[in-house]
Amino acid sequence: MAKQYDVAVIGAGAAGMMCAAVAAQRGKRVVLLDHATRLAEKIRISGGGRCNFTNVGAGPANFLSQNPNFCRSALSRYTAQDFLALVRKHRIAYHEKHKGQLFCDDSSEQIIRMLRAECEQGEVSWRMPCKIGSIEKSDTGFHITAEGGDIACDSVVIATGGLSIPKIGATDLGYRIAKQFDLQIVEPRPGLVPLTFDGPSWEAFAPLAGIALEVEVSTGGGKGKGKKSGGHFREDLLFTHRGLSGPAILQISSYWEPGTPIVLDLLPEMDVAEELISSKTTVKKQLGNVLSQWLPARLAEGLLVANGFAPDARLADIADAKLRKLGDAINRWAIVPTGSEGYKKAEVTLGGVDTRELSQQTMMANKVPGLYFIGETVDVTGWLGGYNFQWAWASGYVAGSSV
Protein backbone atom coordinates (compact mmCIF):
# COMPACT_ATOMS: atom_id res chain seq x y z
CA MET A 1 0.00 0.00 0.00
CA ALA A 2 1.26 3.50 -0.88
CA LYS A 3 1.70 5.92 2.01
CA GLN A 4 -0.77 8.79 1.73
CA TYR A 5 0.26 12.47 1.85
CA ASP A 6 -1.30 15.73 0.72
CA VAL A 7 1.91 16.98 -0.92
CA ALA A 8 5.14 15.39 -2.14
CA VAL A 9 8.01 17.83 -2.73
CA ILE A 10 10.80 16.38 -4.88
CA GLY A 11 14.09 18.19 -4.23
CA ALA A 12 15.23 19.31 -0.77
CA GLY A 13 17.16 22.41 -1.80
CA ALA A 14 16.33 26.05 -1.17
CA ALA A 15 13.00 26.14 -3.05
CA GLY A 16 11.91 22.66 -1.98
CA MET A 17 12.48 23.17 1.74
CA MET A 18 10.79 26.57 1.66
CA CYS A 19 7.77 25.09 -0.12
CA ALA A 20 7.56 22.08 2.21
CA ALA A 21 7.78 24.26 5.33
CA VAL A 22 5.08 26.69 4.16
CA ALA A 23 2.69 23.89 3.08
CA ALA A 24 3.24 21.86 6.26
CA GLN A 25 2.69 24.87 8.52
CA ARG A 26 -0.68 25.29 6.77
CA GLY A 27 -1.57 21.82 8.07
CA LYS A 28 -0.77 19.82 4.94
CA ARG A 29 0.80 16.37 5.28
CA VAL A 30 4.06 16.84 3.39
CA VAL A 31 6.84 14.44 2.39
CA LEU A 32 10.14 15.85 1.12
CA LEU A 33 12.26 13.58 -1.11
CA ASP A 34 15.83 14.01 -2.35
CA HIS A 35 18.37 11.68 -3.98
CA ALA A 36 21.37 13.30 -2.25
CA THR A 37 23.02 12.03 0.91
CA ARG A 38 23.85 15.57 2.16
CA LEU A 39 21.12 18.15 2.52
CA ALA A 40 21.14 21.36 0.43
CA GLU A 41 24.71 21.18 -0.86
CA LYS A 42 24.18 24.18 -3.15
CA ILE A 43 23.24 26.36 -0.16
CA ARG A 44 26.25 24.99 1.73
CA ILE A 45 28.84 25.98 -0.88
CA SER A 46 27.29 29.31 -1.89
CA GLY A 47 28.93 32.62 -1.08
CA GLY A 48 32.21 30.99 -0.16
CA GLY A 49 30.42 29.00 2.56
CA ARG A 50 28.54 32.01 3.96
CA CYS A 51 25.50 31.85 1.65
CA ASN A 52 24.58 35.02 -0.24
CA PHE A 53 20.98 34.28 0.74
CA THR A 54 19.20 37.26 -0.85
CA ASN A 55 19.64 40.76 -2.23
CA VAL A 56 17.88 43.76 -0.69
CA GLY A 57 17.14 45.16 -4.15
CA ALA A 58 15.71 42.00 -5.72
CA GLY A 59 13.00 42.76 -8.27
CA PRO A 60 11.79 41.58 -11.69
CA ALA A 61 14.47 43.62 -13.52
CA ASN A 62 17.17 41.35 -12.01
CA PHE A 63 15.85 38.20 -13.70
CA LEU A 64 16.01 36.67 -17.18
CA SER A 65 13.17 34.68 -18.73
CA GLN A 66 11.42 34.37 -22.06
CA ASN A 67 8.49 35.88 -20.14
CA PRO A 68 10.16 38.60 -18.00
CA ASN A 69 6.92 39.45 -16.19
CA PHE A 70 6.29 35.92 -14.91
CA CYS A 71 8.40 36.35 -11.75
CA ARG A 72 6.69 39.60 -10.75
CA SER A 73 3.83 38.02 -8.77
CA ALA A 74 5.96 35.66 -6.64
CA LEU A 75 8.65 38.28 -5.96
CA SER A 76 6.04 40.78 -4.77
CA ARG A 77 4.31 38.24 -2.52
CA TYR A 78 7.52 37.06 -0.83
CA THR A 79 10.20 39.75 -0.77
CA ALA A 80 13.79 39.94 0.46
CA GLN A 81 12.42 41.65 3.59
CA ASP A 82 10.13 38.66 4.23
CA PHE A 83 13.09 36.28 4.10
CA LEU A 84 15.11 38.64 6.31
CA ALA A 85 12.33 38.47 8.90
CA LEU A 86 12.75 34.68 8.93
CA VAL A 87 16.54 35.03 9.28
CA ARG A 88 16.08 37.40 12.23
CA LYS A 89 13.51 35.10 13.84
CA HIS A 90 16.16 32.39 13.90
CA ARG A 91 18.73 34.87 15.26
CA ILE A 92 21.13 34.44 12.36
CA ALA A 93 23.67 37.30 12.20
CA TYR A 94 24.21 38.68 8.69
CA HIS A 95 25.89 41.54 6.85
CA GLU A 96 25.42 43.45 3.61
CA LYS A 97 28.20 43.48 1.06
CA HIS A 98 28.61 44.86 -2.47
CA LYS A 99 25.39 46.03 -4.17
CA GLY A 100 22.83 44.79 -1.64
CA GLN A 101 24.14 41.24 -1.26
CA LEU A 102 23.35 39.71 2.13
CA PHE A 103 25.56 37.01 3.69
CA CYS A 104 25.61 35.06 6.96
CA ASP A 105 28.25 36.33 9.38
CA ASP A 106 29.06 32.76 10.32
CA SER A 107 28.12 29.92 7.97
CA SER A 108 25.66 28.83 5.27
CA GLU A 109 24.88 25.87 7.57
CA GLN A 110 22.74 28.33 9.57
CA ILE A 111 20.38 28.80 6.59
CA ILE A 112 20.14 25.03 6.12
CA ARG A 113 19.38 24.52 9.83
CA MET A 114 16.79 27.32 9.70
CA LEU A 115 14.94 25.74 6.77
CA ARG A 116 15.14 22.31 8.39
CA ALA A 117 13.70 23.75 11.61
CA GLU A 118 10.84 25.38 9.69
CA CYS A 119 10.08 21.99 8.08
CA GLU A 120 10.20 20.26 11.48
CA GLN A 121 7.75 22.82 12.87
CA GLY A 122 5.26 21.64 10.26
CA GLU A 123 6.16 17.96 10.84
CA VAL A 124 7.42 17.37 7.32
CA SER A 125 8.36 13.72 6.62
CA TRP A 126 11.80 13.18 5.07
CA ARG A 127 13.07 10.62 2.58
CA MET A 128 16.80 11.09 2.00
CA PRO A 129 18.59 9.66 0.11
CA CYS A 130 15.70 8.48 -2.03
CA LYS A 131 15.61 7.66 -5.74
CA ILE A 132 12.39 8.34 -7.64
CA GLY A 133 11.18 5.58 -9.93
CA SER A 134 8.10 7.03 -11.64
CA ILE A 135 5.31 9.57 -11.19
CA GLU A 136 1.85 8.73 -12.50
CA LYS A 137 -1.31 10.84 -12.42
CA SER A 138 -4.82 9.45 -11.98
CA ASP A 139 -8.26 10.85 -11.22
CA THR A 140 -7.50 10.64 -7.51
CA GLY A 141 -4.06 12.30 -7.56
CA PHE A 142 -0.48 11.14 -8.06
CA HIS A 143 1.31 7.86 -7.44
CA ILE A 144 5.09 7.98 -6.93
CA THR A 145 7.26 4.88 -6.89
CA ALA A 146 10.28 5.59 -4.71
CA GLU A 147 12.89 3.98 -2.50
CA GLY A 148 11.40 3.26 0.90
CA GLY A 149 7.90 2.65 -0.44
CA ASP A 150 5.33 4.11 -2.82
CA ILE A 151 3.65 7.45 -2.16
CA ALA A 152 0.12 8.58 -2.99
CA CYS A 153 -0.56 12.31 -2.89
CA ASP A 154 -2.86 15.07 -4.13
CA SER A 155 -0.06 17.40 -5.28
CA VAL A 156 3.54 17.04 -6.46
CA VAL A 157 6.03 19.92 -6.39
CA ILE A 158 9.16 19.62 -8.55
CA ALA A 159 12.08 21.49 -6.97
CA THR A 160 14.95 19.49 -8.46
CA GLY A 161 17.01 22.46 -9.68
CA GLY A 162 19.00 22.73 -12.92
CA LEU A 163 22.08 21.13 -14.44
CA SER A 164 24.77 23.35 -12.92
CA ILE A 165 27.52 21.87 -10.71
CA PRO A 166 26.92 18.17 -11.51
CA LYS A 167 29.54 17.10 -8.95
CA ILE A 168 27.10 17.94 -6.14
CA GLY A 169 24.30 15.92 -7.72
CA ALA A 170 22.56 18.08 -10.34
CA THR A 171 20.34 16.06 -12.70
CA ASP A 172 17.75 16.64 -15.42
CA LEU A 173 14.95 14.93 -13.47
CA GLY A 174 12.77 18.05 -13.36
CA TYR A 175 12.94 18.47 -17.13
CA ARG A 176 12.16 14.78 -17.70
CA ILE A 177 9.07 15.02 -15.50
CA ALA A 178 7.94 18.17 -17.37
CA LYS A 179 8.35 16.39 -20.72
CA GLN A 180 6.46 13.35 -19.40
CA PHE A 181 3.46 15.62 -18.83
CA ASP A 182 3.90 17.36 -22.23
CA LEU A 183 5.12 20.67 -20.83
CA GLN A 184 7.40 22.80 -23.01
CA ILE A 185 11.04 23.33 -22.01
CA VAL A 186 13.14 26.40 -22.84
CA GLU A 187 16.47 24.85 -23.88
CA PRO A 188 18.73 24.81 -20.78
CA ARG A 189 22.27 26.18 -20.91
CA PRO A 190 24.91 27.26 -18.38
CA GLY A 191 24.45 30.69 -16.77
CA LEU A 192 26.65 32.81 -14.49
CA VAL A 193 29.64 31.00 -15.98
CA PRO A 194 33.24 31.93 -16.97
CA LEU A 195 33.76 32.46 -20.72
CA THR A 196 36.55 30.82 -22.71
CA PHE A 197 38.65 32.11 -25.63
CA ASP A 198 41.21 30.54 -27.93
CA GLY A 199 42.87 31.11 -31.28
CA PRO A 200 45.31 33.79 -32.48
CA SER A 201 43.25 36.72 -31.19
CA TRP A 202 43.69 35.48 -27.63
CA GLU A 203 47.41 34.59 -27.71
CA ALA A 204 48.55 37.94 -26.28
CA PHE A 205 46.16 37.57 -23.32
CA ALA A 206 46.71 33.91 -22.40
CA PRO A 207 49.69 34.78 -20.11
CA LEU A 208 47.66 37.35 -18.12
CA ALA A 209 45.97 34.86 -15.74
CA GLY A 210 45.44 36.36 -12.30
CA ILE A 211 45.05 39.99 -13.38
CA ALA A 212 41.85 41.59 -12.03
CA LEU A 213 40.31 45.04 -12.52
CA GLU A 214 36.92 46.76 -12.48
CA VAL A 215 35.39 47.11 -15.95
CA GLU A 216 32.14 47.81 -17.72
CA VAL A 217 30.88 44.92 -19.86
CA SER A 218 27.97 44.78 -22.25
CA THR A 219 26.43 42.65 -24.95
CA GLY A 220 23.77 43.34 -27.51
CA GLY A 221 21.79 40.21 -26.68
CA GLY A 222 20.00 38.19 -29.32
CA LYS A 223 17.76 39.22 -32.16
CA GLY A 224 14.28 37.95 -32.86
CA LYS A 225 11.35 36.65 -30.88
CA GLY A 226 12.00 35.38 -27.39
CA LYS A 227 15.64 36.49 -27.28
CA LYS A 228 17.07 38.36 -24.31
CA SER A 229 17.79 42.05 -24.54
CA GLY A 230 21.37 43.13 -23.95
CA GLY A 231 23.00 43.28 -20.55
CA HIS A 232 25.31 45.93 -19.08
CA PHE A 233 27.28 45.60 -15.83
CA ARG A 234 30.09 47.33 -13.96
CA GLU A 235 31.94 44.69 -11.96
CA ASP A 236 35.35 43.09 -11.48
CA LEU A 237 36.96 41.14 -14.33
CA LEU A 238 39.48 38.31 -13.84
CA PHE A 239 41.81 36.91 -16.48
CA THR A 240 42.13 33.09 -16.23
CA HIS A 241 44.25 30.48 -17.98
CA ARG A 242 41.36 29.68 -20.33
CA GLY A 243 39.65 33.05 -20.71
CA LEU A 244 37.75 35.54 -18.56
CA SER A 245 35.90 35.22 -15.26
CA GLY A 246 34.99 37.37 -12.26
CA PRO A 247 31.58 38.90 -11.46
CA ALA A 248 31.53 41.02 -14.67
CA ILE A 249 31.85 37.95 -16.89
CA LEU A 250 29.53 35.75 -14.83
CA GLN A 251 26.85 38.45 -15.09
CA ILE A 252 27.21 39.03 -18.84
CA SER A 253 27.43 35.29 -19.62
CA SER A 254 23.70 34.94 -18.98
CA TYR A 255 23.00 37.51 -21.72
CA TRP A 256 25.67 36.34 -24.15
CA GLU A 257 24.58 34.51 -27.31
CA PRO A 258 27.18 32.14 -28.85
CA GLY A 259 28.93 33.67 -31.86
CA THR A 260 28.36 37.27 -30.73
CA PRO A 261 30.89 39.60 -29.08
CA ILE A 262 31.00 40.96 -25.57
CA VAL A 263 32.27 44.55 -25.27
CA LEU A 264 34.64 45.54 -22.45
CA ASP A 265 35.53 49.04 -21.25
CA LEU A 266 38.75 48.48 -19.32
CA LEU A 267 38.95 52.11 -18.13
CA PRO A 268 35.32 53.23 -17.68
CA GLU A 269 36.28 56.47 -15.91
CA MET A 270 38.46 57.67 -18.78
CA ASP A 271 38.32 58.51 -22.49
CA VAL A 272 41.65 56.83 -23.24
CA ALA A 273 42.13 58.30 -26.73
CA GLU A 274 41.56 61.87 -25.55
CA GLU A 275 43.84 61.34 -22.56
CA LEU A 276 46.66 59.95 -24.73
CA ILE A 277 46.36 62.69 -27.36
CA SER A 278 46.29 65.49 -24.78
CA SER A 279 49.35 63.96 -23.05
CA LYS A 280 51.48 63.93 -26.22
CA THR A 281 52.82 67.43 -25.73
CA THR A 282 53.43 67.21 -21.98
CA VAL A 283 54.55 63.63 -21.37
CA LYS A 284 57.87 62.49 -22.82
CA LYS A 285 57.30 58.82 -22.05
CA GLN A 286 57.07 55.46 -23.76
CA LEU A 287 53.54 54.35 -24.58
CA GLY A 288 53.80 51.27 -22.34
CA ASN A 289 54.80 53.37 -19.35
CA VAL A 290 51.89 55.78 -19.88
CA LEU A 291 49.31 52.97 -20.09
CA SER A 292 50.83 51.29 -17.03
CA GLN A 293 49.81 54.30 -14.96
CA TRP A 294 46.17 53.35 -15.56
CA LEU A 295 46.22 49.59 -16.13
CA PRO A 296 48.18 46.66 -14.64
CA ALA A 297 51.55 46.65 -16.43
CA ARG A 298 51.20 43.14 -17.89
CA LEU A 299 47.75 43.96 -19.24
CA ALA A 300 48.96 47.25 -20.75
CA GLU A 301 51.74 45.43 -22.58
CA GLY A 302 49.40 42.64 -23.76
CA LEU A 303 46.92 45.19 -25.17
CA LEU A 304 49.66 47.08 -26.99
CA VAL A 305 51.11 43.93 -28.56
CA ALA A 306 47.67 42.62 -29.55
CA ASN A 307 46.88 45.92 -31.29
CA GLY A 308 50.20 46.23 -33.15
CA PHE A 309 51.90 48.84 -30.92
CA ALA A 310 55.45 48.62 -29.60
CA PRO A 311 55.37 49.16 -25.81
CA ASP A 312 58.65 51.15 -26.03
CA ALA A 313 57.35 53.52 -28.74
CA ARG A 314 57.37 57.19 -27.67
CA LEU A 315 53.89 58.58 -27.13
CA ALA A 316 54.86 61.87 -28.84
CA ASP A 317 55.75 60.01 -32.05
CA ILE A 318 52.39 58.28 -32.56
CA ALA A 319 49.74 59.79 -34.83
CA ASP A 320 46.44 60.85 -33.28
CA ALA A 321 44.50 58.46 -35.53
CA LYS A 322 46.51 55.52 -34.19
CA LEU A 323 45.97 56.64 -30.60
CA ARG A 324 42.23 56.81 -31.26
CA LYS A 325 42.39 53.22 -32.50
CA LEU A 326 44.20 52.21 -29.31
CA GLY A 327 41.68 54.12 -27.18
CA ASP A 328 38.87 52.19 -28.88
CA ALA A 329 40.65 48.91 -28.17
CA ILE A 330 40.65 49.78 -24.45
CA ASN A 331 37.28 51.55 -24.02
CA ARG A 332 35.39 49.38 -26.52
CA TRP A 333 37.21 46.03 -26.68
CA ALA A 334 34.89 43.70 -28.60
CA ILE A 335 35.79 40.01 -28.36
CA VAL A 336 33.88 36.87 -29.30
CA PRO A 337 34.07 34.06 -26.74
CA THR A 338 34.53 30.59 -28.20
CA GLY A 339 32.45 29.05 -25.40
CA SER A 340 32.05 28.78 -21.66
CA GLU A 341 33.34 26.58 -18.85
CA GLY A 342 30.01 24.72 -18.96
CA TYR A 343 27.80 23.33 -16.23
CA LYS A 344 30.76 22.24 -14.08
CA LYS A 345 31.57 25.90 -13.35
CA ALA A 346 28.13 27.48 -13.94
CA GLU A 347 26.38 28.83 -10.86
CA VAL A 348 22.91 28.46 -12.41
CA THR A 349 21.05 26.96 -15.36
CA LEU A 350 19.34 29.27 -17.84
CA GLY A 351 16.08 28.03 -19.36
CA GLY A 352 13.92 25.27 -17.92
CA VAL A 353 10.18 24.70 -17.75
CA ASP A 354 8.50 27.30 -19.98
CA THR A 355 6.70 29.81 -17.75
CA ARG A 356 3.78 29.91 -20.22
CA GLU A 357 2.97 26.41 -18.95
CA LEU A 358 2.62 27.62 -15.34
CA SER A 359 0.38 29.88 -13.26
CA GLN A 360 2.40 32.82 -11.98
CA GLN A 361 0.11 33.03 -8.93
CA THR A 362 0.60 29.39 -7.83
CA MET A 363 3.44 27.84 -9.94
CA MET A 364 1.03 25.02 -10.92
CA ALA A 365 1.10 23.56 -14.43
CA ASN A 366 -1.95 24.91 -16.26
CA LYS A 367 -2.80 21.59 -17.94
CA VAL A 368 -1.80 19.24 -15.08
CA PRO A 369 -3.75 20.16 -11.93
CA GLY A 370 -1.74 19.40 -8.80
CA LEU A 371 1.70 19.46 -10.49
CA TYR A 372 3.96 22.42 -9.55
CA PHE A 373 7.43 23.55 -10.65
CA ILE A 374 9.56 25.95 -8.60
CA GLY A 375 13.08 27.36 -8.26
CA GLU A 376 15.82 26.80 -10.81
CA THR A 377 13.78 24.14 -12.66
CA VAL A 378 11.72 27.00 -14.12
CA ASP A 379 12.81 29.43 -16.90
CA VAL A 380 13.56 32.24 -14.43
CA THR A 381 17.23 33.04 -13.79
CA GLY A 382 18.58 35.78 -11.54
CA TRP A 383 21.70 37.89 -11.67
CA LEU A 384 24.73 37.06 -9.55
CA GLY A 385 24.36 38.36 -5.99
CA GLY A 386 21.60 36.55 -4.05
CA TYR A 387 18.85 36.93 -6.65
CA ASN A 388 18.52 33.22 -7.46
CA PHE A 389 18.03 32.36 -3.80
CA GLN A 390 15.31 35.02 -3.59
CA TRP A 391 13.55 33.35 -6.54
CA ALA A 392 13.82 30.01 -4.72
CA TRP A 393 12.26 31.47 -1.56
CA ALA A 394 9.53 33.35 -3.46
CA SER A 395 8.52 30.55 -5.84
CA GLY A 396 8.66 28.04 -2.98
CA TYR A 397 6.48 30.26 -0.84
CA VAL A 398 3.75 30.76 -3.45
CA ALA A 399 3.63 27.05 -4.29
CA GLY A 400 3.60 26.12 -0.59
CA SER A 401 0.76 28.60 -0.02
CA SER A 402 -1.27 27.07 -2.87
CA VAL A 403 -0.85 23.29 -2.75
Instruction: Return the structural class.
Output: alpha+beta
Helical residues, percent: 25-40%
C-alpha Rg (nearest Å): 25 Å
- Morphology call: elongated
Uncertain regions: pLDDT < 50 for 5+ in a row?
222-227
Number of strands: 21
Mean pLDDT over the residues = 95
Span between N and C termini? 23 Å
- Biggest sheet details: 7 strands, mixed
Total number of helices: 12
User: Hey, roughly how much beta strand do the residues contain?
Assistant: 15-25%
Task: Walk me through this protein's architecture.
- The chain has helices at 14-25, 41-45, 72-77, 80-89, 109-121, 173-180, 247-253, 272-279, 287-291, 297-306, 320-331, 387-402; strands at 3-10, 30-33, 52-55, 63-64, 94-96, 101-104, 125-127, 132-138, 141-146, 151-158, 185-191, 195-196, 212-218, 232-239, 243-245, 262-265, 333-335, 339-340, 348-353, 371-373, 381-382.
- It contains twelve helices and 21 strands.
- Strands 1, 2, 7, 8, 9, 10 and 20 form a seven-stranded mixed β-sheet that branches. It has a seven-stranded antiparallel β-sheet with strand order 17-16-13-14-15-12-18.
